[in-house]
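Bench notes, afternoon.
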Amino acid sequence: MTSPYRSRWLDDDLDALRELARSFCEKEIAPHKERFIEQHHVDRDLWQVAGALGLLCMSIPEEYGGGGGTFAHEAVLIEEQARIGDSSWGAALHSGIVAHYLLSYGTEEQKRAWLPRMASGEVVGAIAMTEPGTGSDLQNVKTRAVRDGDEYIVDGSKTFITNGGQADLILVVAKTGTAGAAGISLVLVEGDRPGFRRGRVLDKIGQRGQDTSELFFDAVRVPVTNLLGTVEGQGFVQLMQQLPQERLILAVGATVAVETALAQTLSYTKEREAFGKPIFAFQNTKFTLAEVATEARIMRVFTDDCVDRHVRGELDIQTVAMAKWWTTERAMANIDRCLQLHGGYGYMTEYPISRLWVDNRVQQIYAGTNEIMKEIIARTL
C-alpha cells in the first residue's frame, strides 16, 4: 500500500540508508527465514555481513567504530527488518540497547574494548535482566556479584535473554550491595568465562528464530573493571534511563507490523474470491480495512513524533510509555482483524499473517509489561 504520508524525521541520507537496509534484509535474511526458525538462531556470519555494510551500531559515534548517526538510523533498519517479517535477528537490541549502555555509562577503556567489535559484528551483545522468579521487578533480582579482592564473583540465573545463545558480551543485572534499587549494578560478563553456561534456547510460540535463552552464572569470576561505569549501585538508574529507547524500538516495530499486515491483507482480499466476487468487495471487509488503515496512520504519526522528539533529546518517560503500551496493544488487535479476513488460511503457518500474529504478542510483555507502562503514566496524572 502506497501512502502519501512521509515521516518527518526522514531525510536524503536516511532514504539512502533505507535502500541499503532493504537490500540487506531481502538478500541476507528473507531467503533464510525458515532455516533460522528451524535452527532457532540466525547464522553467525550475518552479524559480520551487517557490520561490513555499516548496519550495526549506526547511532554510536565514529570514534568508537559506529556510524555516527542517531536513533533515526536504527529505526530505518528496524522498519525494514519488520517489513520482511523477520523476528530472528536481534540487531535492534545489540545496536540500540546494549551498545548504548556501554556508550552512556562505560569507562573509556570499556567503550574502546567493546564498541568497535560490536559495530563490526565480531561481538554480539545481550542484556540479562529477567530471572525465573523476577520479571518486571528489577529491584529484587537474586543474581549477585560479590566482590573478592580485584574480582567479582557472579552467581545466579537469567531467562528470556534475547541473543542469549550467541552473545559474546552480556550485561548482567546483579546485586552488588544491599536490598532495593541502590544495590543494583550492571556487570559485564564475557561469554567464554569459566562458570558461565547457556541453557536451552527457549521454545516460544513466536519469534522462533530468535536465540532467546536461559543463562547460568556459577561462581563466574570477572575483574572489578567489568563493572559498567566506575561506581557500584548505579545499575537501576542506568536501566531506567535506557529503557525508554528500548520501548521506542518496540513502538516502531509494532507500527510497521500493522502497516505490513494491512498491505498483506489488502493483497489477499483483492485476489481471493467468495460468492463470485473478491473478498474486498464485501462491505465488512472494506470497513474493517478502513479502520485498520486509520489506526495504522495514527500509530505512525504518534511513533514518528516520538522518534522525532527522541532524536532531539526531548522524549520523556511517560510519553514513550504511552507509545509502547498503546502501539503494541493496537498492533495485536489490528493484526488479529487482518488474520480474520484471511479466513482459515490465516491460521496456516505458511501465510505471513499468522507469523505476524504470534511474533507480535510478546511486545505487550517485554521491556516492561503494558500494565507497568500504565502505572508509569498514572504517576503523572
